[in-house]
Each structure stands twice: as C-alpha cells, then as structure tokens.
C-alpha cells in the first residue's frame, strides 16, 4: 500500500507527509504513545523545576519581609505576630526584648541579601543553560543556531498566510523586469572570472541519500516535519 502512494507522490513534501502518516499509523497499531507537537515550529516555554523552586523561595522571602516591616511599623495583628515568631524561631530572639527593632532590621537585610543571591543564581543558571543549549544546537544544526541568534524564535500557532496573496507577493518581486545599473567594474570582474572553470553539477543519487540516512541516529530529535530517521530506515519502500 505504501509503495502505491510513494509512486504517486509529486514532490518531496508530499513524500514526507506520506511517510509521516505511515509512521503514525504504525504507532497507533502497536499502541505507542504519539505526540505530533514536534511538527509545530513553536518550542516549549515551560519554566524549569529548579527555577520554579528558586522563584518560590524569593516570593516567600518577599512576603516575610512585608510582614516584618508591618510588625516593625506597629502592626500587632495575631497573624503578623505569628509570622514574626516563626521568622525568629531557633534564634533565641524574643519579641519583647529592647533591641527587637534592630533584630527586625537585621533579619530584613538578611532576607534582602538572600533574594539578591537567588536572583544572581537564576541569572547564572540561565546563562549556563543557554550556553549549553547553543553548543548542542551548534553541533546538530548550525543554521537554526544562527537564526535564533539573529531573531527570536516565533511560534507557528498563528493563522497561515493566504496562498493567493503569497504567490502575488513573490511574483511581484521575481517576475517583474528590472533594469540593473551595470558600471564599468562589472566588465572588469567578468574578464577576471573568465578563466575560472565552472563547477561540475552535483547529482544526488538515491544511493547517496540511503548512505546518509544509514549513518544518521535513529531517534535523534527530528526537524520541523517530526519524522525520525528510524522510519526512513524501516520502511523498505522508502528506499
């Protein structure tokens, strides 16, 4: 059945869609869990667990600072007093001692320093994670790395462009005749390049493609099409 669709395929994009559909059908037959989110250009923006933990500490410390400042300003509500007692638990500090205001100030300064240290830790970890991901991306796909450095990653969840408008736009750029300004320097360059032997045309054979796929990792992260190399190797008709 697969060979019938492949023989009727008109271009490489259609062939890729046929192979992806065949891979999806096999996964459903054997009961494997399948996620088609990989075919979307957007990337997951989930916050790492380590960052959530640090941000929770910062939020709790800021809330505690607010309670301590309220108590220092004379707010003696039971909830505020209970929080202040918990803040000084294990420090032998009594709320009735004469220098409690100084102790409160020291505790507030300590919490502010902790918040600053946690913020620097987030920035340090984020920079390290960014460097690590860029190194991995450089090793696997340098083009995507340079594109991500030039412009931010854009999610592909928006509406698709209208086909007629897209064709009209590019046709207006490439189909209209343009009179280029050719100065004398173009003749000089043409004469200098006249003796250069043109490169032989590159012909990619099915054997070249099969050899490249054979050496590719089976389950490495796929491209935007979401099709792993395993299926290109496994479907004999695709060869």
The radius of gyration computed from the alpha-carbon positions, rounded to a whole number of angstroms, is 32 Å
Contiguous runs where pLDDT drops below 50 for at least 5 residues: 38-44
**Major sheet summary line:** none
Overall form = elongated
Percent helix among the residues?
55-70%
Annotation field: number of helices: 10
Order of helices and strands: HHHHHHHHHH
Would you count the extended β strands for me? 0
Cα separation of the termini: 15 Å
Structural class: mainly alpha
Beta-strand content: under 5%
Question: What is the residue-mean pLDDT, rounded to a whole number?
Answer: 82
Question: How does this model look, in words?
Answer:
This protein has ten helices and no strands. It has 239 residues and is mainly alpha-helical. Helix 3 packs antiparallel against helix 5 (100-140) and helix 5 (100-140) crosses helix 6. It is elongated. Residues 101-128 form a coiled coil. This is (apollo) hypothetical protein. It comes from Parnassius apollo (Apollo butterfly).
């Amino acid at each position: 059945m697969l060979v019938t669709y492949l023989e009727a395929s008109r271009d490489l994009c259609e062939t890729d869609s046929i192979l992806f559909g065949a891979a999806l059908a096999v996964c459903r037959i054997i009961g494997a869990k399948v996620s088609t989110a990989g075919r979307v250009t957007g990337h997951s923006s989930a916050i790492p667990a380590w960052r959530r933990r640090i941000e929770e500490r910062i939020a709790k410390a800021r809330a505690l600072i607010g309670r301590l400042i309220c108590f220092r300003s004379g707010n003696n509500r039971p909830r505020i007093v209970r929080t202040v007692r918990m803040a000084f638990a294990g420090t032998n500090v009594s709320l009735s001692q004469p220098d409690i205001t100084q102790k409160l100030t020291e505790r507030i300064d300590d919490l502010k320093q902790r918040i600053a240290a946690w913020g620097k830790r987030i920035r340090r970890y984020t920079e390290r994670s960014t460097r690590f991901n860029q190194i991995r991306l450089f090793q696997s796909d340098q083009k995507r790395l340079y594109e991500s450095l030039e412009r931010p990653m854009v999610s592909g969840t928006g509406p698709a462009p209208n086909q007629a408008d897209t064709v009209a736009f590019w046709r207006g750029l490439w189909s209209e005749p343009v009179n280029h300004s050719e100065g004398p320097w173009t003749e000089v360059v043409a004469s200098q390049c006249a003796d250069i032997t043109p490169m032989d045309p590159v012909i990619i054979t099915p054997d070249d493609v099969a050899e490249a796929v054979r050496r590719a990792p089976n389950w490495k992260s796929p491209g935007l099409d979401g099709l792993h190399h395993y299926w290109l190797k496994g479907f004999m008709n695709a060869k």
